Amino acid sequence: MTILTYLIPVALVLGAGALVAFLWALRSGQYEDLDGAAHRMLNDDDRADGRRSDGSATRPKT
Amino acid sequence: MAPGGALGLPSEEEVRLAARALGDGAFQVELSVPGVHCGACINSVEKTLLALDNVRSARVNLSTRRVTIVWRGQDVPPLVSRLAAIGYPPHLFDTAGVSDDQTLPELIRAVAISGFAATNIMLLSVSVWSGADGATRDLFHWVSALIAVPALVFAGRIYYRSAWQALRHGRMNMDVPIAVGISLAYAMSLYETATGGHYAYFDATVSLLFFLLIGRTLDHVMREKARSAVIGLARLQPHGALVVGDGGERTYRPVIEIQTGDRLLIAAGERVPVDGVIETGQSVVDAAITNGESTPLRAAAGVELRAGMLNLTGPLTVIAQRPASQSFLAEMTRLMEAAEGGRARYRRIAERVSALYAPVVHLTALLTFAGWMLWAGDWHQAMTIAIAVLIITCPCALGLAVPIVHVVAARRLFEDGVMLKDGSALERMVDVDTVVFDKTGTLTLGALRLVNAADIAPEYLAVASDLAGHSRHPVAAAIHAVSIPFVERMEEVSEVPGFGLQGRSGTHLWRLGRASWAVANNDDKPGGTVLSRDGEPVARFVFEDTIRPMTRQTIADLIARNIHVEMLSGDNQTACDRVADTVGIERYSANLLPADKVSRLNDLASDGRKVLMVGDGLNDAPALAAARVSMAPATAADIGRNAADFVFLRNGLDAVLHTLDIARRADRLVRQNIVLAIIYNAIAVPIAIFGYVTPLIAAIAMSASSLLVIANALRLSAGRRNRGEATFVQTREVQA
User: Is B112 an 8 Å CB contact of chain A?
Assistant: First the structure.
């Protein structure tokens, strides 16, 4: 049963990792425009994602 | 489209007022862009905006159909005109209503955490059920107890808060038994774990929270989606007005800063911001949304205007008579607040059920405890069984029974273009037996239509249509809408405010407008709109207000269902006679003031009638608030839209009937779900009382009953007529 002493923590850490990843994605606004994200993927022009043509990254503050 | 296409777009000053300073000279504004619907749209909107000087960033949100723009400097870049030019006319919306929604992130976080906890605890529980024993079982129980802590803190908090709120006000809601149940279950399981006992209910506690939170979150998401779609509709009230100072200087001031005696400039296509008297200028004013009059009014010096009227043809100088806080709009808001009441008195089904349910459950648990104490005398055993009763009766199914049906119903309505703003509205809709309609803008579209186009010779129609294209007057727009290819082009076209249009072709002078002006010796001719050539009348035009699509059919269907139909209008008797006759309404009243509409609704209510009010104007807003349940079209005035429970975005009036049907079907499902939940309790509670419930049985029973009510609710979305995105109808201005 000693195997439990590290299997349980490993399972919990993996689960917690997924939870943290989800909460991070939520906080960084990735769920705010699900419809738009689906369409932006098909845009060839990467300048359409909010950056100026000179390449400076200017994401709008939310 | 006629030159009227630019009507209703926000001015740069309005955009400036709506913008938020981000510091370091940058400003951010959010515009609603209903026309955006695809990847290419995102691309062209963002590229066009980024190409403007000083625009730092532009990002489209396709889900909410909004674009967030950040620019630098005091001057507003020509955002609105550029967007309109590429075919995405934007508008401002009420940012006050979109205050940062804190509830949704909290709910989603709670769902995520309780989901994580529920799955992990379930994993450990499965090993306990399948025979883990002794030290292993205790270890698993301890780990489960630990994982349950964040779930209780983050997810349980929502229920504790709501239960506390209810108890403090001496009410009962479904969250009270939930909060009591999970707390006692956790406390007892902890005691069991510490004493090395067999049964711990950590899994049941946390998965209960998880299931309930899913229902709650879906409910919130659906309601928020509908609300943001309504907020995204064009604002009809102006943010501010151009004030002319004593020295002639012009400043754009927010509406609340306008004082009595200020001189305001109101351009054609703008709405009147506060009540006032015209000082100079000649124009035509559309008062449909203010007081329900379908015929546009002539406006000249000395005429009193009310806040909300739309100036159609010429610029006006207006002296403000009252500040915004005492204007017509404010008066309507006061009437609305006074009228509200029928809605507040309504108690939701879930509240009524829980007011009975919670005491019964708690009493049953208490009696079980007392019974086992007397029978066996072992307080530990009695306690365990009493808590098992609490857990098994914890209203998992009951807590989902109502919200899940409402989620499915709201989604169904959303897809059909009806926005449900308040969950209880569906319940209030169910037993409606009287429908009261407003006329202008509700039964009719508020746009004139040329009736006798067939009787007019095509060459004259062509001339009239060409002339009419030069004006924003609703009559002109109606003639222009019958577009016929021009035979000869008009030259020197000019508009004579208050009279009509004139133009020259070759040697002939053509006039389109008032008979008294267009016809040279007008002694015995009746009034109306005529086309004249060199003073001789050649064509006469007859108009009527366009009836909303599906109106006749809807009213016939309502009457066929034994629903009493009435029309209350602020318009004159003749206009009401005609519309009532066309659509088949027998009972109607004309020339009503807003307060008259409210008192009529109160009369109906005191007769025991359950009234649905459908209206759009500023003058309907108090009535919308006074009715048991209310609907407004998307073209309604801002406060009307806010007051209504439902807002329908499509043009057809069949939305009313459709909403009624969905509400009734939803009501049947809610009742079935409650019966299912009660049957579940009738079976499970005796098992629990006699002490046969183990954590395994509790987990299975609760999940099964929840799945059952969810499956039942989903039946509502079966048999959908037309799927797809709600199409946004254009606002009245854009149509005109």
Answer: yes
